[in-house]
């Protein structure tokens, strides 16, 4: 066994860099926090190749004296704390004094600084952790940190970095999180020489609107509460602005962006009575408390904190947000309106479009609640319609019954016959449904002549009635009512069609590739940086899933093809769902271990939606597909797709024979 030995400082710094500097965004975070701690009110950021080639941060903060420049790149050397009491009451974003030293050990770093009372600036260069002598330099009051070729001396670590687009997306997300919490500071972000963000000094509402979208601010409720030394300010979005993921959740503790389980649970509980369990709230909240009551030294990147009185913090956050949400009323004007009157950005517009249907349904629900509470009609967005049943004349009922008998007469006659041969009918051929109506669900033509083989393959049933019977009607745009041999069948059409599409997708992917339907007119949508990076990195391989995506710009993606069975679905929602899974899980795992989960998501987006009116032809075609599809008794989520009410059950409901 080898003897215990002390590691050299350079190796120690490189080990620390593995924890502190996970990727270029981590190095950017450390430097931005140093600039803010130095009191800067103007910060410029320059990136090249997603931060892998270059990260340069310039500020107008207090600066570093020439004699202190070597110490700034030494481990555990800092001006922010000097004792245990300082550590327990730390009020700065950085305090360990290991960030710059760790970055310098895995890059070529140049630190240039000039205090405001100095005549000129000085700089120091560190290459592979080796410090060069301090030299005079030209620089305005403040500090600049330039990092070139991150991980150039640790090729094994550099291999774990993602593509340029992905790394830049993480850098931009870090920049936005820090800029959001400091609206009093002017920020500029450039990537490959192009200005991406220019944020002037502004109010909190304006900064939130600039970064998260003006529609977020106008759909939000402002919060400004305090009690027992605790303060909570910011914005919580109304439940109608909910999201499918947690991407729009920003929570800060004393100006530091954190992800804390206690805070997340408290905020989730505050939304419990007004938010569907599959949706996530959106908020930008800034929580302030005595630094002595929170421990920020529990994670290498300071992304987690530990509260001294966690139960009290939970109650304060819960009641503050719950009270704000309880103050909303139907038809109320936006609580916050930005003054510039400019339309929201692309991302915000897309978010509004995606949630438009949900907002409409929520508005109906809110209106109904207001009516029950006794609100005046003027405060309701629209009146709830009244439904009155009218009598049906006898001749109309007879015509409807006769038409239905004529519609299926040919099929029943042939099924009753000794052989399944196709015979002439008044319509010219034997068909399921209306012989004169052609329609489709998920790309399959339904009104097609039945061949002898297909008639022979129908499930056995007496009197020519298939197991799931023949469709009678559609109920509230959700359920199909069908008359079977022994009663009534009720089918959840979305769940049933979802299973059918799912099984078809599985079978096609097992044969290597899902057939694609090119779109005559490609559909473009506004995408965030992570979606564009994923489309760049995996676009060609994703064609195996039947989806063709083409990035048009840093904020636009075009959908050029979708799976043939999903051509009637929403291509934008489908593309977003697939991009989300590929980004979070990885394409290789999506196509192997998580394949069925992704196909289930795709099937859900492509299945026929509620409130879509189906013809009898379409309804009967769906029933026949269910009879021929494996595991069609349950949908992809395990819920039943159909239920039977026998004649005995119906007789018991009406007490017949008693």
Automatic annotation (TrEMBL):
Keywords: DNA damage, DNA repair, Endonuclease, Hydrolase, Nuclease
Domain MutL C-terminal dimerisation, first and last residues per copy: 471-614
InterPro entries linked to this entry: DNA_mismatch_repair_CS, DNA_mismatch_repair_MutL, DNA_mismatch_S5_2-like, HATPase_C_sf, MutL/Mlh/PMS, MutL/Mlh/Pms-like, MutL_C, MutL_C_dimsub
A Pfam cross-reference name: MutL_C
DNA mismatch repair protein S5 domain span: 208-326
Keyword check for DNA repair: yes
Gene3D superfamilies the record matches: 3.30.230.10, Histidine kinase-like ATPase, C-terminal domain (3.30.565.10), MutL, C-terminal domain, dimerisation subdomain (3.30.1540.20), MutL, C-terminal domain, regulatory subdomain (3.30.1370.100)
Domain of life of the source: Bacteria
Reported function: This protein is involved in the repair of mismatches in DNA. It is required for dam-dependent methyl-directed DNA mismatch repair. May act as a 'molecular matchmaker', a protein that promotes the formation of a stable complex between two or more DNA-binding proteins in an ATP-dependent manner without itself being part of a final effector complex.
HAMAP family to which the protein is assigned, alphabetical: DNA_mis_repair
Family: Belongs to the DNA mismatch repair MutL/HexB family.
Name of the protein in question: DNA mismatch repair protein MutL
Species of provenance: Vogesella margarita
Gene: mutL
């Amino acid at each position: 066994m080898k003897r215990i030995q002390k590691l050299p400082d350079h190796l120690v710094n490189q080990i620390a860099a593995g924890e502190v500097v996970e990727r270029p965004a981590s190095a950017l975070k450390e430097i931005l926090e140093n600039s803010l701690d130095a009191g800067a009110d103007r910060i410029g950021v320059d990136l090249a190749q997603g931060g892998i080639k270059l990260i340069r941060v310039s500020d107008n903060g207090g600066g570093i004296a020439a004699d202190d420049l070597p110490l700034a790149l030494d481990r555990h050397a800092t001006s922010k704390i000097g004792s245990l009491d300082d550590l327990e009451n730390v009020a700065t974003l950085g305090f360990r004094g290991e960030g710059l030293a760790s970055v310098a050990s895995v890059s070529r770093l140049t630190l240039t600084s000039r205090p405001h009372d100095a005549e000129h600036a000085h700089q120091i260069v560190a290459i592979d952790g080796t410090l060069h002598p301090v030299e005079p330099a030209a620089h305005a009051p403040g500090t600049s940190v330039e990092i070139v070729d991150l991980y150039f001396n640790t090729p094994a670590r550099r291999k774990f970095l993602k593509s340029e687009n992905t790394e830049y997306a993480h850098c931009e997300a870090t920049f936005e999180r820090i800029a959001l919490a400091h609206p009093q500071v002017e920020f500029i972000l450039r990537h490959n020489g192009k200005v991406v963000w220019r944020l002037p000094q502004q109010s909190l509402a304006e900064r939130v609107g600039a970064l998260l979208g003006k529609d977020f601010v106008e759909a939000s409720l402002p919060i400004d509460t305090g009690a027992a030394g605790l303060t909570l300010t910011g914005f919580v979005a109304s439940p109608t602005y909910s999201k499918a993921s947690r991407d729009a959740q920003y929570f800060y503790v004393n100006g530091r962006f954190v992800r804390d389980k206690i805070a997340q649970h408290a905020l989730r509980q505050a939304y419990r009575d007004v938010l569907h369990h599959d949706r996530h709230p959106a908020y930008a909240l800034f929580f302030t408390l005595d630094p002595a009551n929170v421990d920020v030294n529990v994670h290498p990147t300071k992304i987690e904190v530990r509260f001294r009185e966690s139960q009290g913090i939970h109650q304060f956050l819960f009641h503050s947000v719950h009270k704000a949400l309880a103050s909303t009323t139907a038809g109320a004007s936006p609580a916050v309106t930005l003054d510039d009157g400019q339309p929201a950005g692309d991302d915000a517009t897309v978010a509004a479009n995606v949630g438009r249907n949900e907002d409409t349904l929520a508005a109906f629900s809110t209106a109904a609640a207001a009516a029950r509470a006794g609100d005046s009609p003027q405060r309701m967005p629209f009146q709830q319609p009244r439904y009155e049943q009218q009598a049906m004349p006898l001749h109309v009922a007879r015509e409807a019954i006769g038409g239905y008998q004529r519609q299926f007469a040919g099929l029943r006659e042939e099924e009753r016959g000794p052989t399944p041969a196709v015979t002439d009918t008044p319509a010219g051929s034997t068909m399921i449904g209306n012989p004169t109506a052609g329609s489709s669900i998920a790309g399959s033509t339904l009104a097609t002549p039945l061949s002898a083989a297909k008639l022979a393959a129908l499930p056995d049933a007496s009197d020519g009635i298939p197991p799931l019977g023949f469709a009678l009607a559609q109920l509230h745009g959700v359920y199909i009512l069908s008359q079977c041999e022994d009663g009534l069948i009720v089918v959840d059409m979305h769940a049933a069609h979802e299973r059918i599409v799912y099984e078809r997708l599985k079978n096609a992917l097992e044969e290597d590739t899902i057939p694609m339907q090119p779109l005559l007119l490609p559909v473009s949508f506004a995408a965030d940086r992570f979606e564009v990076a994923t489309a760049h990195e995996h676009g060609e391989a994703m064609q195996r899933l039947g989806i063709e995506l083409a990035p048009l710009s840093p904020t636009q993606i075009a959908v050029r093809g979708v799976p043939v069975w999903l051509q009637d679905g929403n291509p934008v929602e489908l593309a977003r769902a697939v991009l989300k899974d590929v980004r979070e899980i990885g394409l290789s795992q999506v196509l192997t271990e998580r394949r069925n989960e992704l196909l289930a998501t795709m099937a859900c987006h492509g299945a026929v939606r509620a409130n879509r009116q189906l013809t009898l032809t379409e309804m009967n075609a769906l029933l026949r597909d269910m009879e021929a599809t494996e595991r069609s008794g349950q949908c992809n989520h395990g819920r039943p797709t159909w239920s039977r009410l026998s004649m005995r059950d119906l007789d018991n409901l009406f007490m017949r024979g008693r």
